[in-house]
Amino acid sequence: MALTLLCLAGAFRVAAHPASGPSTDDCLACHGDKTLTTQRGGRTVSLFVDGKKFSSSIHGALSCTGCHADLEGKDLPHATPLARVQCGTCHSDEEKQHAKSLHGKAIARGDKLAPHCVDCHGNHDIVPVKDARSAVAALRVPFVCGRCHQEGTAVMTERKIDQHDILTNYSESIHGEALLKKGLTVAANCVSCHTPHNILPHTDPNSSIARRNIATTCTKCHAEIEEVHRKTIRGELWEKEAHVLPACVDCHQPHKIRNVYYEQGMADADCMRCHSNEHLKAANGRSMFVSAAEIAGSRHAHPRTQATPVSCSQCHSEVNVSHVRPCETITHPVDCSKCHEDQGLQYQHSKHGQLLAAKDPNAPSCKECHGTHHILDKRDPESRTFSTNVPQLCGSCHREGQKAAVRYTGTEHQIIQHYTESIHGKGLLRSGLTVTATCTNCHTAHGVLPSSDPASSVNPKNLPATCGACHHGIEEQFEQSVHSRLVTKTDKALPVCNDCHSAHTIRRTDENGFMLDIMDKCGKCHAEIAKTYFDTYHGKVSRLGYTKTAKCYDCHGAHDILPVTDPRSHLSRANVVQTCQKCHATATRRFAGYLTHATHHDPKKYPFLYWTFWGMTTLLVSTFVVGGMHTLLWLPRALEMRRDLKREEEASRNGENHATGGEEDNHAG
Amino acid sequence: MPADLADRTTNPRPEPDLRIPERPPRQREFVRFTRAQRTLHACMIVSFISLATTGLTLKFSYTKWAAMVSRFLGGFQVAGFIHRTAAILMFGVFVAHIYSLVQMKRREYKSWWELLLGPYTMLPTKQDLQQVTATFKWFLGRGPRPQYGRWTYWEKFDYFAVFWGIAVIGSTGLTLWFPIFFTRFLPGWAINVATVIHSDEALLATGFIFTVHFFNTHLRPEKFPMDTTIFTGHMPLAELKRDKPLEYENLVAGGQLEEHLEEPQPEIVVRTIRFFAWIALSIGFSIVVWIIYAMLFAYK
Predict the structure, then answer these.
(1) What is the pLDDT of residues A343-360, one digit of tens each?
(2) pTM to 2 decimal places
(3) Dihedral (Cα; A405, A411, A416, A418), 10-degree rounding
(4) Which of A17, A133, B10, B94 has its CA 20 to 30 A from that of A617?
């Protein structure tokens, strides 16, 4: 299309000024002579133009003055030298790119070595690039570029170019071999990577070979290379986060790309050249020693799957292999989230992540929990994140007196000790059941948030789902119960799992302690009804500390509590007898009429109980008043009698001393 | 051989006198209660205290004491078992007493009429009413001490209080014991009513026995600290003369006193009786303290 337009434009020019300048034939009258030469810069230059070639070239339809515009309207023979042909008149895009490119800027600087259009494309014999005869046809590009970019040229010796043996290396590379030896015209040549006109140094962020862009450049041909490449390096990350991840060229070095697998160990060995030294210390005294054995045993060495180990530079990115100390270009700490993206995102939103973002010195980052070089799979019992080790791990900060516990202002204290004694703690630590809930099961591993945060896994809103991850059946029951916020819409706080089971002191529900506590737990909200429960036999026995009588959940259900008006309730008319029969095997409907929450303090609700109670109390009080009065009035007389009696006894004893007999005779008499 | 040992072998010490030193002969005592009556009262004490202790643990379940006592007894199930066993014993005492009345009627009386209206009747009489008035006059210093007979009005009151108590507490107790049976013909809330009656009537009985009855029979100053008559069956003649002058006079007038006199119980028996009576009294007092504490200071 562009080509057509250009031709038309050329034709228009020619047609519009038919007599304004010399025709092609006029020019060829002189330039058709092969011997026509001129002296330029001390060299003899041929001025011969092959008319045949020109007419078969892409520009064949144009007149000479279409390009040599300064001959427009001039008489022949013209003055010399002619001005440089401005290809950009028609090829304006290419012209602009070129002007901004490395080559264009060099020209602007006046660098004599800088190439112009003609240096690559030729002049009068330009054919379309697809044409094999084209100077810039795929097969010729390496040589076009190589004219300057090969050893010994002025460009290579006089200009600062980092790469060396470019042409040689290329021709031996997988790309070069394919192109030059096998004639695969689709194989990458210089311009495939460097672009034809927009050639920029790799330090320029707009360069096609800048770190940031290299992935895009390579994936033009190597589409979906990320799929066949290591799974952990996401294709998109490769492009988006090129500054933290190794770019293609870090492994597949430019111009040297070989038809062999890159050996990871090589790079690690480079690092270990210094870091295997046990005495290596950073400026601040921190040991920089890296134990190769630790790494070899770590999760990143993929000991199970035998996959290619993660190399140093994949974590410690930003290394620059061209430096003697490749690590000196590192400016950021290791960012695990580049591979562990989900976890990284969770962490960012977590309390830990927020603290880190706020530059809190106590904030734990990945390494505080996972370690550094000796990271182990969480399924490895040796791992710090193995389930049985998690309480210890979290406890290192959250144990009472430790840095996280001292800044904590909530109500949960002694959490590690409590957890250890809880059903979960016992299951995990004593019974060794590794599937038992540990800190991370409830709080999540990376998204830890305070329970007050609506996004927290332990926020009341989310708690049923969190506990339900293991106790799924219970969650299903609970979510249909009157306590579920899916069922009851209210402003009041509805109970969730921890309101009855607690958070860290969760006990077996068949333990006395739990069973007896539950009345207080329900009573927190249902104060009145709990009080009246204690007025009945069930409540009294429970309060004595025995669990064999009915407690709240024995009648109401535990997680599937429903209003008694609900036919599904354990206490609905249809179910109540059955519920009583759980304990009272022969219970009848009338027996179920027993008032389990009756109180004799409510004259409206339970008048018969109220009046019975007050009748009995009246009887009791009046009996005691009469009895007590009788006794009190009697007391002084009785004391009097006692005094008399004593006197009599003394008298009779005295009498006995004087005369024998007395008493017996008296009685007889 | 050491000298002193040789001395001993040759001159043995005199044999110690092992005979019981003779005591002055004790005076004969008036027999107020038969062995059967005393046994029934003893059973009643055991049963009553057991019922009270176990029952109050439930009634006062909100006190720490209740939980301690319940645990001491072996838990609420054991306590419940004791309570029911004691209830059976109480019913047994009741039945045995009725049976003894029948026997007594056959042995000593010609008809029930005579038994119920005779001088030794337990039924309240006109004389009792008069004595109530006279007693209050005496209390207020406006008259002499009434001439009480064999059974004073307060003793009759105690006697019928037991009848009443067994009827009320017993019937409600059975309702609570067999609720499923009773709800065949009673509504469910009758169990609640039975609970209130059982509990309050029991409180009345317990409170009354351990305070008023204790005072009337044991603690009143002239008998302090206890009257063992109900345990030994015996009453010193002087006491009879002083406490129940009317009966004494009747017996003397009828010339029947002599046949009601008996040698006192052996010292060891009296001591044993006192020991157990002390235990019963102490438990009773403790229960009173517990009740007062629970009702006044810990009531919920």
Answers:
(1) 988 999 999 999 999 999
(2) 0.66
(3) 160
(4) B94
- How does pLDDT run across A364-399, given as a tens digit for each residue? 999 999 999 989 989 999 999 999 999 999 999 999
Helix (H, G, I), strand (E, B) or coil at B282: helix
CB burial readout A459-478, b (16+ within 10 A) else e: bbebbbebbbeebeebbebb
Q: Which residue of B has its CA nearest to A532?
A: B300
Map tokens 């000796």 to a residue: A374
Contact B201 A633 (CB under 8 A): no
CA pair distance A402, A364, nearest whole angstrom: 13
Q: Are B166 and B94 in contact (CB under 8 A)?
A: yes
Torsion of CA A351, A356, A361, A362, to 10 degrees: 30
Q: Do residues A439 and A390 make contact, with C-beta atoms less than 8 angstroms apart? A: yes
Judging contacts by C-beta atoms under 8 Å, the chain B residues touching residue A639 are: 221
Alpha helix positions (H), A280-324: 292-297, 312-315
Amino acid sitting at position A628: G
Output the CA–CA distances (angstroms, integers) from residue A567 to A477, A550, A558, A571, A574, in the order listed.
15, 21, 17, 8, 7
Residue of B nearest to A537 (CA): B58
The predicted-structure confidence for A198-255, as pLDDT tens digits, reads as follows 888 887 888 888 877 888 888 888 876 766 555 445 555 566 665 556 667 766 767 7
Check A634 against B220: CB less than 8 A apart: yes
Question: Chain B, 64-83: which have a CB under 8 Å from a chain A CB?
Answer: 66-67, 70-71, 75-77
The residue extents of the domains of chain A are: 338-488, 511-592, 600-645
Q: Under a CB-based contact definition with an 8 Å cutoff, are residues A146 and A168 in contact?
A: no
Residues facing residue A46 across a β-bridge: A37
Distances in Å between the Cα of B264 and the Cα atoms of A319, A448, B237, B267 are 116, 87, 11, 8
The torsion of the CA quartet A168, A173, A176, A180, rounded to 10 degrees, works out to 80
CB A609 to CB B192 under 8 A? Answer: yes
What does R_g of chain A's alpha carbons equal in angstroms?
49
CA B282 – CA A468 distance, rounded (Å): 58
Instruction: Judge contact between A237 and A300, C-beta under 8 A.
Output: no
Q: Tell me if A225 sits within 8 A of A219, measured CB to CB.
A: yes
Q: Tell me phi and psi for residue A630, to 5 degrees.
A: -55, -45
Specify the pairing of strand B234-235 against strand B29-31.
Answer: antiparallel
User: What pLDDT digit, counting tens, does each position of B213-256 carry?
Assistant: 999 988 888 888 888 999 999 999 888 988 899 999 988 998 88
- CA dist A103 and A197 (Å) reads 8
Task: State the virtual CA torsion across B294, B297, B298, B300 in degrees, nearest 10.
Answer: 100
Q: Is the peptide bond before A81 cis (omega within 30 degrees of 0)?
A: yes
The complex's ipTM works out to: 0.88
Residues 6+ apart with CB under 8 A from A489: none
pLDDT digits (tens, 9 = 90+) for B176-225: 999 999 999 999 999 999 999 999 999 999 999 999 999 998 888 888 88
Q: Which of A58, A61, A110, A117 is nearest to A92 (CA)?
A: A117
**Which of B216, B222, B244 to mutate to test binding with chain A, by most A CBs within 10 Å of its CB?**
B222
The Cβ of residue A644 has, within 10 Å, a number of other Cβ atoms equal to 12
Which domains, ranges and CATH numbers included, belong to chain B?
A: 29-297 (1.20.950.20)
Nearest-CB residue to A638 (from B193, B220, B241)? B220
Distances (CA, A) of A119 to A110, A135, A648: 16, 10, 155
Q: How far apart are CA B150 and CA A209, in angstroms?
A: 128
Residue A357 makes CB contacts below 8 A (sequence gap 6+) with: A348
